[in-house]
Amino acid sequence: MHRLAMTINRNQPETLPARPQALAWVDRAPFFQAGLAGYSDAAMRLIARRHGCPYCVTEAMLDTLLIAGGRGLKPAYLTDDDHPIAGQIIGSEPGEMAQAAKILLPFGFDVIDVNLACPVKKIRKRHRGGHLLSAPDTAVDILAAVRDAVGDAVPLTVKLRRAFDDTDEMAANFHRIFEAVIGLGYAGATVHSRTVRQKYNGPGHRPFFAELTARYRDAMADGFLVFGSGDVFTPRSIFDTVRDSGLSGVSVARGAIGDPWIFEHAHALMRGEPLTPPTIFQQRDVLAEHFELSVSLHGERAAGRMMRKFGIKFSRHHPHADVVKDAFCRVSTLDDWRAVLDRYYHEDGPGTPIGQVSPDETGTTETCEVV
Ligand SMILES: Cc1cc2nc3c(=O)[nH]c(=O)nc-3n(C[C@H](O)[C@H](O)[C@H](O)COP(=O)(O)O)c2cc1C
């Protein structure tokens, strides 16, 4: 285990528990890239990996779309350099979720992750995502059905929010589901520190993480992984969160949009090295590569729409952020993109450290647009 993790992870036992190979990265780097609907496609994941991200989660894939096949399977296709990776499924009904998990296996996912976190409102009165935290029987049935379907083929994990809302009843539901996750042999869980009702309003409730790791200390000592999610926008906040909570690690979500360097900088912190913002030329290379990867995945038109929102986030590293942001807002084609790079990224120089970015400033809210 790396030295920094040894010193920051108070709850971690001296001897490391046995881990599934697919999750062994956690002993070297306590962070990964979260699922982000509408963002964390293969292009964003590959860029993150090239900057030191050890593990990625796909955006939530709706079970019924996977079952329907055809275009519904598009987000499940993986390249050889996109591992280790968790394929995340979301849905309402145990049988369909089990079927969806089985469909993902031949695509080569290293882990299957069950989404019990998405706050997007109930669809046709059916619970799914975070709404299942208010329907614990169904949530547990889904977890059990996925477990039965996958068997020991790959490790299973789950993504939850800390509760549906702040009532005692919902706190009890959370723990009932969490205990089932452990009892069913899931390898780990990622918990977003906001409630489902809270959506993205206000900060997450960080003290919940320490309560959680204290309560499930025995399971963690046996190897169960508990990750935190919420408000991780800087490399330092990765380690602050882990140190204060005893978590196994954290996921980087909005903080990774337009900032793949967050992973490189997290590694630099572990080595005790200073953090240097990406130079203009480093930014240009990543922007060019990200667009090309996006074009190869989605075609030029869709990539143009998709990359606009990335360009806006990337522009924060540029000394003339406002002008560059405006220019990215008008991009449609690969040529438009290249024109922005030629105009604003043609001369090298230091980039701007983006520091602490508040959730509001990121301007992104979860849509769980199902892909
Ligand atoms: C636009 C957007 C899409 C998201 N999509 C997913 C998703 O598909 N699966 C998932 O587990 N979480 C999803 N999330 C939640 C994030 O993974 C993360 O838990 C949340 O943003 C809190 O972390 P942050 O405050 O560091 O961004 C999404 C969040 C946003 C903003």
SS class: alpha/beta
Assess the beta-strand content as a share of residues: 5-15%
Supply the CATH class of the largest domain.
Alpha Beta
CATH topology call of the largest domain: TIM Barrel
**What's the helix count?**
15
Number of strands: 9
Gyration radius from CA atoms, angstroms: 20 Å
The figure for the number of domains is: 2
Oligomer description:
single chain
Overall geometry: globular
Task: Explain what the structure shows.
The relative contact order is 0.13. 42% of the residues lie in helices and 11% in strands. The two termini are 36 Å apart. The longest helix is centred in the C-terminal third of the chain and has 19 residues, at 280-298. It folds into 2 domains: 3-270, TIM Barrel (Alpha-Beta Barrel); 280-344, Non-ribosomal Peptide Synthetase Peptidyl Carrier Protein, Chain A (Orthogonal Bundle). Strand 5, helix 5 (136-150) and strand 6 form a beta-alpha-beta unit. It has helices at residues 3-8, 42-50, 63-68, 94-104, 136-150, 168-183, 207-215, 217-221, 235-245, 261-270, 280-298, 300-314, 321-329, 334-344, 359-362; strands spanning 31-33, 56-57, 61-62, 85-90, 111-116, 156-161, 188-192, 225-229, 249-252. It contains 15 helices and 9 strands. It has 371 residues and is an alpha/beta fold. The protein binds flavin mononucleotide. Flavin mononucleotide is lined by residues 34-38, 59-60, 88, 115, 117, 159, 192, 229-232, 253-255, 359, 364-368.
Task: Give a topology summary.
Layout: H1 3-8, E1 31-33, H2 42-50, E2 56-57, E3 61-62, H3 63-68, E4 85-90, H4 94-104, E5 111-116, H5 136-150, E6 156-161, H6 168-183, E7 188-192, H7 207-215, H8 217-221, E8 225-229, H9 235-245, E9 249-252, H10 261-270, H11 280-298, H12 300-314, H13 321-329, H14 334-344, H15 359-362
Parallel strand pairs: 1-9, 2-4, 3-4, 4-5, 5-6, 6-7, 7-8, 8-9
The structure holds flavin mononucleotide.
Flavin mononucleotide (FMN) is lined by residues 34-38, 59-60, 88, 115, 117, 159, 192, 229-232, 253-255, 359, 364-368.
